[in-house]
Amino acid sequence: MAWGKRGDMIVHSSDPYNAEPPRRVLAGAELTPADAFYVRNHGPVPRGDPSAHRLHLDGLVAGPRVWTVDGLRSRFGEHQVLATLQCAGNRRAGLNEVREIPGQAAWGPGATSTARWTGVRLADVLAEAGVHDSAAHVAFEAPDVSDAADPPQRFGGSIPLRKAVAAEVLLAWAMNGERLPAVHGAPLRVVVPGYIGARSVKWLERVTLRRTPSANWFQDVAYRIQPDGAGPRAGFALGPISVNSDVLDPDDGARVPPGRLRVRGYALAGDDREVPRVDVSTDGGHSWVQAELGARHGPWSWRMWRADLEVGPGPLTVLARAWDSAAGVQPESPAQVWNPGGYANNAWARVRLRVG
Ligand SMILES: Nc1nc2c(c(=O)[nH]1)N[C@H]1C(S)=C(S)[C@@H](COP(=O)(O)O)O[C@H]1N2
Ligand SMILES: [Mo]
Protein backbone atom coordinates (compact mmCIF):
# COMPACT_ATOMS: atom_id res chain seq x y z
CA MET A 1 0.00 0.00 0.00
CA ALA A 2 1.17 3.53 -0.77
CA TRP A 3 3.07 5.16 2.11
CA GLY A 4 2.16 2.37 4.53
CA LYS A 5 -1.52 3.31 4.50
CA ARG A 6 -4.56 1.03 4.72
CA GLY A 7 -5.99 -0.33 1.50
CA ASP A 8 -9.33 1.41 2.02
CA MET A 9 -8.01 4.98 2.21
CA ILE A 10 -9.96 7.42 0.02
CA VAL A 11 -7.16 8.64 -2.27
CA HIS A 12 -7.75 12.16 -3.65
CA SER A 13 -4.48 12.12 -5.60
CA SER A 14 -1.57 9.70 -5.72
CA ASP A 15 1.17 12.16 -6.81
CA PRO A 16 1.37 14.10 -4.61
CA TYR A 17 -0.23 11.59 -2.26
CA ASN A 18 -3.41 12.93 -0.61
CA ALA A 19 -5.76 10.60 1.22
CA GLU A 20 -8.27 10.36 4.05
CA PRO A 21 -9.60 7.33 5.92
CA PRO A 22 -13.26 6.30 5.54
CA ARG A 23 -15.59 7.58 8.27
CA ARG A 24 -16.01 4.27 10.08
CA VAL A 25 -12.23 3.81 10.37
CA LEU A 26 -11.90 7.15 12.18
CA ALA A 27 -14.84 6.22 14.43
CA GLY A 28 -12.98 3.21 15.75
CA ALA A 29 -10.25 4.86 17.81
CA GLU A 30 -9.46 7.89 19.96
CA LEU A 31 -5.91 7.78 18.59
CA THR A 32 -5.73 7.42 14.83
CA PRO A 33 -3.26 4.66 13.88
CA ALA A 34 -0.48 5.85 11.56
CA ASP A 35 -1.79 3.66 8.73
CA ALA A 36 -5.15 5.51 8.82
CA PHE A 37 -3.99 9.08 9.56
CA TYR A 38 -4.95 11.41 6.71
CA VAL A 39 -2.21 12.78 4.48
CA ARG A 40 -2.13 16.22 2.88
CA ASN A 41 0.82 16.91 0.58
CA HIS A 42 1.32 19.83 -1.81
CA GLY A 43 4.45 18.42 -3.43
CA PRO A 44 6.68 15.36 -3.45
CA VAL A 45 7.83 13.82 -0.16
CA PRO A 46 11.52 14.84 0.22
CA ARG A 47 13.95 12.01 -0.37
CA GLY A 48 16.90 13.35 1.65
CA ASP A 49 18.83 11.24 4.17
CA PRO A 50 17.03 11.90 7.50
CA SER A 51 20.31 11.74 9.45
CA ALA A 52 21.65 14.62 7.35
CA HIS A 53 18.62 16.77 8.22
CA ARG A 54 19.30 20.19 9.77
CA LEU A 55 16.95 22.69 11.37
CA HIS A 56 17.98 26.31 10.82
CA LEU A 57 16.78 28.94 13.26
CA ASP A 58 17.27 32.51 12.06
CA GLY A 59 15.73 35.97 11.62
CA LEU A 60 15.07 38.20 14.63
CA VAL A 61 17.05 36.17 17.17
CA ALA A 62 20.16 37.06 19.18
CA GLY A 63 21.98 33.97 17.90
CA PRO A 64 21.03 32.00 14.80
CA ARG A 65 21.35 28.25 15.31
CA VAL A 66 21.61 25.04 13.30
CA TRP A 67 20.30 21.92 15.00
CA THR A 68 20.32 18.21 14.25
CA VAL A 69 17.36 16.21 15.54
CA ASP A 70 19.70 14.42 17.98
CA GLY A 71 21.04 17.79 19.09
CA LEU A 72 17.51 19.01 19.90
CA ARG A 73 16.77 15.79 21.77
CA SER A 74 19.83 16.01 23.97
CA ARG A 75 19.63 19.76 24.63
CA PHE A 76 15.92 20.19 25.43
CA GLY A 77 13.36 18.33 27.53
CA GLU A 78 11.07 15.86 25.79
CA HIS A 79 7.31 16.57 25.84
CA GLN A 80 4.17 14.93 24.51
CA VAL A 81 0.87 16.35 23.34
CA LEU A 82 -2.29 14.54 22.32
CA ALA A 83 -3.41 16.63 19.38
CA THR A 84 -5.80 16.46 16.47
CA LEU A 85 -4.68 17.75 13.09
CA GLN A 86 -7.40 19.01 10.79
CA CYS A 87 -6.90 20.26 7.26
CA ALA A 88 -8.67 23.52 6.42
CA GLY A 89 -10.03 21.63 3.39
CA ASN A 90 -11.77 19.10 5.64
CA ARG A 91 -15.46 18.70 4.59
CA ARG A 92 -14.99 20.71 1.40
CA ALA A 93 -17.35 18.22 -0.25
CA GLY A 94 -20.19 19.94 1.62
CA LEU A 95 -19.24 23.32 0.15
CA ASN A 96 -19.15 21.84 -3.37
CA GLU A 97 -22.84 20.99 -2.96
CA VAL A 98 -23.52 24.73 -2.63
CA ARG A 99 -21.24 25.81 -5.46
CA GLU A 100 -18.39 23.86 -7.07
CA ILE A 101 -14.86 24.85 -6.00
CA PRO A 102 -12.75 24.09 -9.07
CA GLY A 103 -9.30 22.55 -8.84
CA GLN A 104 -9.53 21.55 -5.17
CA ALA A 105 -10.07 18.02 -3.82
CA ALA A 106 -13.50 17.23 -2.39
CA TRP A 107 -12.33 16.14 1.05
CA GLY A 108 -14.85 14.49 3.34
CA PRO A 109 -14.71 14.57 7.14
CA GLY A 110 -11.61 12.36 7.25
CA ALA A 111 -8.99 15.12 6.85
CA THR A 112 -8.98 15.04 10.66
CA SER A 113 -6.87 12.65 12.72
CA THR A 114 -5.43 12.45 16.21
CA ALA A 115 -2.04 11.31 17.48
CA ARG A 116 0.17 11.56 20.52
CA TRP A 117 3.15 13.61 19.36
CA THR A 118 6.59 13.57 20.98
CA GLY A 119 9.17 16.32 20.64
CA VAL A 120 10.73 19.40 22.17
CA ARG A 121 8.91 22.65 22.84
CA LEU A 122 9.42 25.27 20.16
CA ALA A 123 9.28 27.76 23.08
CA ASP A 124 12.44 26.24 24.61
CA VAL A 125 14.32 26.32 21.31
CA LEU A 126 13.32 29.95 20.71
CA ALA A 127 14.26 31.02 24.26
CA GLU A 128 17.70 29.47 23.87
CA ALA A 129 18.30 31.50 20.70
CA GLY A 130 17.01 34.74 22.28
CA VAL A 131 14.00 36.26 20.53
CA HIS A 132 14.31 39.94 19.56
CA ASP A 133 11.61 42.31 20.89
CA SER A 134 10.55 43.23 17.37
CA ALA A 135 9.63 39.63 16.42
CA ALA A 136 5.88 38.97 16.14
CA HIS A 137 5.61 35.94 13.85
CA VAL A 138 7.39 32.61 13.50
CA ALA A 139 7.71 31.30 9.94
CA PHE A 140 8.31 27.67 9.00
CA GLU A 141 9.78 26.33 5.76
CA ALA A 142 10.26 22.86 4.31
CA PRO A 143 12.18 21.54 1.29
CA ASP A 144 9.19 20.17 -0.65
CA VAL A 145 8.54 22.34 -3.72
CA SER A 146 4.90 22.65 -4.75
CA ASP A 147 3.82 23.20 -8.34
CA ALA A 148 0.41 24.19 -6.99
CA ALA A 149 1.90 27.47 -5.74
CA ASP A 150 2.27 30.49 -8.01
CA PRO A 151 5.21 30.70 -8.59
CA PRO A 152 6.15 27.12 -7.60
CA GLN A 153 7.89 27.25 -4.22
CA ARG A 154 8.71 25.41 -1.04
CA PHE A 155 5.91 24.76 1.42
CA GLY A 156 5.78 27.19 4.33
CA GLY A 157 3.61 29.24 6.64
CA SER A 158 3.68 31.06 9.94
CA ILE A 159 2.04 31.45 13.31
CA PRO A 160 1.99 34.41 15.69
CA LEU A 161 4.87 34.45 18.19
CA ARG A 162 2.44 34.25 21.12
CA LYS A 163 1.22 30.88 19.80
CA ALA A 164 4.73 29.68 18.94
CA VAL A 165 5.83 30.07 22.57
CA ALA A 166 2.79 28.21 23.95
CA ALA A 167 3.61 24.92 25.69
CA GLU A 168 1.58 22.77 23.27
CA VAL A 169 3.60 23.63 20.15
CA LEU A 170 6.23 20.93 19.56
CA LEU A 171 9.03 20.15 17.16
CA ALA A 172 8.10 16.49 16.90
CA TRP A 173 9.96 13.38 15.75
CA ALA A 174 7.41 10.75 16.81
CA MET A 175 3.68 10.05 16.56
CA ASN A 176 1.92 7.44 18.69
CA GLY A 177 5.26 6.37 20.12
CA GLU A 178 6.82 5.52 16.75
CA ARG A 179 9.28 7.50 14.64
CA LEU A 180 7.46 9.83 12.26
CA PRO A 181 6.71 8.09 8.96
CA ALA A 182 8.28 9.80 5.93
CA VAL A 183 4.90 10.94 4.63
CA HIS A 184 4.10 12.65 7.97
CA GLY A 185 7.28 14.73 8.02
CA ALA A 186 10.25 12.62 9.15
CA PRO A 187 12.59 13.35 10.69
CA LEU A 188 11.04 16.54 12.16
CA ARG A 189 7.81 18.50 11.89
CA VAL A 190 6.20 21.24 13.87
CA VAL A 191 2.85 20.40 15.50
CA VAL A 192 0.63 23.43 16.12
CA PRO A 193 -2.39 22.10 18.03
CA GLY A 194 -5.62 24.04 17.54
CA TYR A 195 -4.48 25.63 14.26
CA ILE A 196 -5.29 24.49 10.72
CA GLY A 197 -3.13 21.55 9.67
CA ALA A 198 -1.26 23.67 7.12
CA ARG A 199 0.68 25.38 9.93
CA SER A 200 2.06 22.02 11.16
CA VAL A 201 4.85 22.08 8.60
CA LYS A 202 6.42 18.69 7.83
CA TRP A 203 10.14 18.04 7.07
CA LEU A 204 10.78 21.28 8.94
CA GLU A 205 14.04 22.84 7.81
CA ARG A 206 13.86 26.51 8.76
CA VAL A 207 12.28 28.55 11.55
CA THR A 208 12.49 32.32 11.02
CA LEU A 209 11.51 35.03 13.48
CA ARG A 210 9.83 37.91 11.64
CA ARG A 211 7.94 41.14 12.16
CA THR A 212 5.25 40.07 9.69
CA PRO A 213 3.58 36.77 8.71
CA SER A 214 5.37 34.51 6.25
CA ALA A 215 5.30 35.68 2.62
CA ASN A 216 5.10 32.03 1.50
CA TRP A 217 2.27 31.39 -0.98
CA PHE A 218 0.62 28.94 1.42
CA GLN A 219 0.28 31.71 4.00
CA ASP A 220 -0.17 34.74 1.79
CA VAL A 221 -2.46 33.39 -0.96
CA ALA A 222 -3.74 29.89 -0.13
CA TYR A 223 -5.39 28.94 3.16
CA ARG A 224 -7.22 32.26 3.32
CA ILE A 225 -10.90 33.03 3.70
CA GLN A 226 -11.49 35.27 0.71
CA PRO A 227 -14.58 37.29 -0.10
CA ASP A 228 -16.35 36.03 -3.21
CA GLY A 229 -14.80 37.39 -6.42
CA ALA A 230 -11.90 39.14 -4.66
CA GLY A 231 -8.19 39.08 -5.59
CA PRO A 232 -5.74 36.42 -4.40
CA ARG A 233 -4.43 38.29 -1.32
CA ALA A 234 -7.83 39.54 -0.18
CA GLY A 235 -9.45 38.22 2.95
CA PHE A 236 -7.62 36.85 5.95
CA ALA A 237 -5.18 34.04 6.61
CA LEU A 238 -6.54 31.04 8.51
CA GLY A 239 -5.05 30.25 11.90
CA PRO A 240 -7.09 28.80 14.77
CA ILE A 241 -9.70 26.32 13.56
CA SER A 242 -13.43 26.78 14.14
CA VAL A 243 -15.67 24.45 16.13
CA ASN A 244 -16.62 21.46 14.00
CA SER A 245 -18.05 17.96 14.12
CA ASP A 246 -19.16 15.19 11.84
CA VAL A 247 -20.95 11.87 11.92
CA LEU A 248 -18.58 8.94 11.42
CA ASP A 249 -20.97 6.00 11.76
CA PRO A 250 -23.28 5.15 10.09
CA ASP A 251 -21.87 6.38 6.81
CA ASP A 252 -23.74 8.88 4.63
CA GLY A 253 -26.10 6.93 2.35
CA ALA A 254 -26.15 3.80 4.57
CA ARG A 255 -29.17 1.52 5.02
CA VAL A 256 -29.86 0.74 8.68
CA PRO A 257 -32.44 -1.46 10.46
CA PRO A 258 -35.35 0.16 12.36
CA GLY A 259 -35.19 0.32 16.15
CA ARG A 260 -32.28 1.56 18.18
CA LEU A 261 -29.64 3.32 16.11
CA ARG A 262 -26.27 4.26 17.58
CA VAL A 263 -24.75 7.30 15.87
CA ARG A 264 -21.07 8.09 16.49
CA GLY A 265 -18.89 11.02 15.54
CA TYR A 266 -16.14 13.44 16.44
CA ALA A 267 -16.16 17.06 17.57
CA LEU A 268 -13.26 19.48 17.71
CA ALA A 269 -12.97 23.02 19.04
CA GLY A 270 -10.38 25.49 17.79
CA ASP A 271 -7.24 26.68 19.57
CA ASP A 272 -7.57 26.42 23.37
CA ARG A 273 -11.32 25.84 23.45
CA GLU A 274 -12.96 22.54 24.36
CA VAL A 275 -16.18 20.79 23.33
CA PRO A 276 -18.63 20.77 26.25
CA ARG A 277 -21.70 19.73 24.23
CA VAL A 278 -22.80 18.02 21.02
CA ASP A 279 -26.43 17.94 19.85
CA VAL A 280 -28.14 15.54 17.46
CA SER A 281 -31.40 16.11 15.57
CA THR A 282 -33.55 13.88 13.39
CA ASP A 283 -36.23 16.50 12.64
CA GLY A 284 -34.26 18.99 10.59
CA GLY A 285 -32.99 20.89 13.60
CA HIS A 286 -36.33 21.71 15.26
CA SER A 287 -35.37 19.69 18.32
CA TRP A 288 -32.06 18.36 19.57
CA VAL A 289 -30.93 15.69 21.99
CA GLN A 290 -27.55 15.85 23.68
CA ALA A 291 -25.02 13.26 22.64
CA GLU A 292 -22.99 11.37 25.20
CA LEU A 293 -19.43 12.70 25.13
CA GLY A 294 -16.37 10.49 25.12
CA ALA A 295 -13.23 11.00 27.18
CA ARG A 296 -12.07 14.57 27.70
CA HIS A 297 -8.45 14.91 26.61
CA GLY A 298 -8.15 18.71 26.82
CA PRO A 299 -8.33 21.41 24.18
CA TRP A 300 -5.89 19.97 21.65
CA SER A 301 -7.76 16.74 20.98
CA TRP A 302 -11.05 15.95 19.33
CA ARG A 303 -13.85 14.58 21.50
CA MET A 304 -15.68 11.49 20.37
CA TRP A 305 -19.46 11.42 20.90
CA ARG A 306 -22.37 9.04 20.47
CA ALA A 307 -26.16 9.13 20.60
CA ASP A 308 -28.71 6.31 20.69
CA LEU A 309 -31.80 7.11 18.63
CA GLU A 310 -35.08 5.26 18.01
CA VAL A 311 -35.71 5.24 14.28
CA GLY A 312 -38.65 4.10 12.18
CA PRO A 313 -38.73 2.99 8.51
CA GLY A 314 -38.16 5.53 5.76
CA PRO A 315 -35.57 8.14 4.82
CA LEU A 316 -33.81 9.72 7.77
CA THR A 317 -31.43 12.68 7.97
CA VAL A 318 -29.27 12.82 11.08
CA LEU A 319 -27.87 16.25 11.96
CA ALA A 320 -25.21 17.05 14.54
CA ARG A 321 -23.71 20.26 15.85
CA ALA A 322 -20.98 20.89 18.40
CA TRP A 323 -20.59 23.81 20.79
CA ASP A 324 -17.27 25.12 22.04
CA SER A 325 -16.43 26.50 25.47
CA ALA A 326 -16.75 30.09 24.14
CA ALA A 327 -20.40 29.27 23.20
CA GLY A 328 -19.44 29.12 19.54
CA VAL A 329 -21.69 26.70 17.67
CA GLN A 330 -21.62 25.29 14.16
CA PRO A 331 -23.69 27.21 11.59
CA GLU A 332 -26.60 25.42 9.96
CA SER A 333 -25.71 25.42 6.31
CA PRO A 334 -22.59 25.24 4.14
CA ALA A 335 -24.11 28.11 2.14
CA GLN A 336 -23.46 30.33 5.16
CA VAL A 337 -19.73 29.60 5.12
CA TRP A 338 -19.04 29.02 1.41
CA ASN A 339 -15.79 30.71 0.32
CA PRO A 340 -13.78 30.55 -2.92
CA GLY A 341 -10.92 28.45 -1.46
CA GLY A 342 -13.35 25.94 0.00
CA TYR A 343 -11.91 26.12 3.50
CA ALA A 344 -13.18 25.65 7.03
CA ASN A 345 -16.59 24.12 6.32
CA ASN A 346 -17.99 23.76 9.82
CA ALA A 347 -21.69 23.61 8.95
CA TRP A 348 -23.88 21.10 10.81
CA ALA A 349 -22.98 17.49 10.17
CA ARG A 350 -25.57 15.80 7.96
CA VAL A 351 -25.88 12.14 6.95
CA ARG A 352 -28.75 10.80 4.89
CA LEU A 353 -29.81 7.28 5.82
CA ARG A 354 -32.48 4.82 4.73
CA VAL A 355 -34.13 2.95 7.59
CA GLY A 356 -35.52 -0.53 6.83
N1 LIG B 1 6.26 20.50 4.17
C1 LIG B 1 4.93 20.37 4.14
N2 LIG B 1 4.25 20.45 5.31
C2 LIG B 1 2.90 20.33 5.31
C3 LIG B 1 2.17 20.15 4.12
C4 LIG B 1 2.90 20.06 2.91
O1 LIG B 1 2.35 19.88 1.81
N3 LIG B 1 4.29 20.18 2.96
N4 LIG B 1 0.79 20.08 4.16
C5 LIG B 1 0.18 20.74 5.32
C6 LIG B 1 -1.25 20.54 5.43
S1 LIG B 1 -2.24 21.49 4.45
C7 LIG B 1 -1.78 19.71 6.39
S2 LIG B 1 -3.44 19.63 6.59
C8 LIG B 1 -0.92 18.87 7.24
C9 LIG B 1 -1.27 17.42 7.09
O2 LIG B 1 -0.44 16.64 7.89
P1 LIG B 1 -0.37 15.07 7.62
O3 LIG B 1 -0.13 14.85 6.16
O4 LIG B 1 0.71 14.56 8.50
O5 LIG B 1 -1.73 14.53 8.03
O6 LIG B 1 0.46 19.01 6.91
C10 LIG B 1 0.84 20.33 6.62
N5 LIG B 1 2.27 20.39 6.51
MO1 LIG C 1 -4.36 21.23 5.08
Q: What does this 3D model show about the protein?
A:
10% of the residues lie in helices and 36% in strands. The protein has helices spanning 23-27, 69-75, 92-96, 122-129, 161-164, 217-220, 334-337; strands spanning 10-14, 17-20, 55-59, 65-67, 78-86, 112-121, 137-146, 153-160, 170-175, 178-179, 189-191, 206-210, 224-225, 236-237, 244-249, 255-256, 259-268, 277-281, 289-290, 292-293, 303-311, 314-323, 349-355. It has a five-stranded mixed sheet with strand order 4-3-12-7-8. Strands 5, 6, 9, 10 and 11 form a five-stranded antiparallel sheet that branches. The protein has a five-stranded mixed sheet with strand order 16-23-22-18-19, with no helix packed on it. It is globular, with a radius of gyration of 20 Å. It starts with 9 loop residues before the first strand and ends with a strand. The mean pLDDT is 97. Residues 40, 87-89, 197-198 line the site of molybdenum atom (MO).
